[in-house]
Amino acid sequence: MADMNLDKPAKPLLTYGTYPALALVTAVTLWATLRHNLDRNAVIGVLTVMTIAVVFAVERLNPLQDRWSMTRQSLIDRDLPFIGLAVVVEQVCTMGVAMVAAAVMPRTGFGPLGRIPLIAQAVIALMASDLLWYAYHRAAHTFSRLWRVHGLHHSPSQLYVLMHQVFNPIDLLVSRFVISLIVFKFTGIASDAAFITIAVLGLQQTVSHVNSDLRTGWLNYPLIGTQTHRYHHAAEGRGNYGSVVPVWDMLFGTFIYQPRRIPGRLGLDDPASYPDPRRFHVVLAYPFRRAAGTTAQ
């Protein structure tokens, strides 16, 4: 199917208002949490549920492409097992990071980064975490063995918020344990800077997978959203390997930004080259099988 171009939005309030509203709510919630010393973990949980609920509703009210939408079959036959697995893996990773940090690191910030303003710490943490993810992510699209892990996330031919959790747990271990441990615990940033970083990560990673006509204009340059991340899921061509900030894509020449264009097809260039993601146990075992004939995409 050929690429399509966007026209005037059918529902301008949702198109232009959804992301600013979510960003404002997130910012106010972060401010209130720090000011009134609210439970950080509970706040992250509330923000996550709120963001998913809002964008899920917006997807139903204002879908970008009907063919990208969630169906009952895609949710039950493919997504739900991975959603459950992701919840378990992320909780295990969170506990693992906390246990390692408690054993070897002080609770407060330390070193040069621990002495700079909190917002500056959070910005540096975002940049550092996205650099590490960019390196891993691009390698996963380059080397066949890593592609056997990461290709699962690209095997769906749809793009919607709940599909975001269709990941191999190895990907999650890299992002939620290895990268989190390095950035949040070994750089010296304060725990509140990590809290801010996690909230921003959650917002941007959720919004970037939304099947809705969300337009954010110039904000696509400092932050990755749905207008840029959908190109990463296009079947032909790859780019935009960053998760939250596009600066590393810009620096290394992989940034794609064509806000009026809709990819003609999502998913794998050659769907037959990867196991059907509905075969849960098969795709989880796939990285450990012989790699003959596997080509990264």
Share of residues in helices: 55-70%
Shape: globular
H/E element order = EHHHHHHHHHEH
What kind of oligomer do you see?
Answer: single chain
Strand content: under 5%
Summed up, the helix count is: 10
- Total number of domains: 1
Q: Order of strands across the widest beta sheet?
A: 1-2
Task: Describe, in plain words, how this protein is organized in 3D.
The protein is mostly helical. It has one domain (4-288). It is 56% helix and 1% strand. It has helices spanning 12-36, 40-61, 72-104, 118-140, 144-154, 169-185, 191-207, 226-232, 247-252, 280-285, and strands at 4-5, 261-262. Strands 1-2 form a two-stranded antiparallel ribbon. Helix 1 (12-36) runs antiparallel to helix 2 (40-61), helix 1 (12-36) packs antiparallel against helix 7 and helix 4 (118-140) packs across helix 7 (191-207). The longest helix is centred in the N-terminal third of the chain and has 33 residues, at 72-104. The mean pLDDT is 90.
